[in-house]
Amino acid sequence: MAQLSDLLQQGGGNAWLFVPSAILFGALHGLEPGHSKTMMAAFIIAVRGTITQAILLGLAATVSRTAVVWGVALVGMRLGSQWSAETTEPYFQVASAVLIICVGLYVGWRGIVALVAVAG
């Protein structure tokens, strides 16, 4: 795949649409299920938040998520040329599985502790 800078320098008729369309599709992607909107809404309801607090929470989530995506992309661009996807993918899959299991165990443990505290 050609670099964006190369496409822009070639004077492609539609190359100038790449960045705005990437921003638009990224924003639309954030509206899809599974992007913590339910948890954020529950938090705002639980603390009886105001509209201003809801907007600030949404902006904070957007900025932090964008920063993480940019960070991952920059690291990937820097180190990605040195890695082979075929050899590193299994390690990333195992690491993500371990991370998900750890988060699940932590959440489960916190739920048990909360139940014991309420019952005791």
State the main characteristics:
mainly alpha, 120 residues, flat, 78% helix, 5 helices
What is the first-to-last residue Cα distance?
61 Å
- The parts where pLDDT drops under 50 for at least 5 residues are none
Average residue-wise pLDDT: 81
Number of helices: 5
Could you say which structural class the secondary elements and strand pairing correspond to?
A: mainly alpha
Total domain count: 3
Q: What is the N-to-C succession of helices and strands?
A: HHHHH
Beta-strand content: under 5%
Helix content: over 70%
Q: Which value, in Å, is the CA radius of gyration?
A: 21 Å
Based on DSSP secondary structure assignment, what is the total number of beta strands? Answer: 0
Q: What is the makeup of the main sheet?
A: none
How would you name the oligomeric state of the polypeptide chains in this document?
single chain
* Basic shape: flat
Overview of the molecule:
The chain is mostly helical and 120 residues long. It folds into 3 domains: 1-32, no CATH class; 36-82, no CATH class; 85-120. The chain has helices spanning 4-9, 18-30, 37-46, 51-79, 85-119. The protein is flat.
Q: Secondary-structure blueprint of this entry?
A:
Blueprint: H1 4-9, H2 18-30, H3 37-46, H4 51-79, H5 85-119
Offer a concise description of the structure.
This protein is mainly alpha-helical and 120 residues long. The protein has helices spanning 4-9, 18-30, 37-46, 51-79, 85-119.
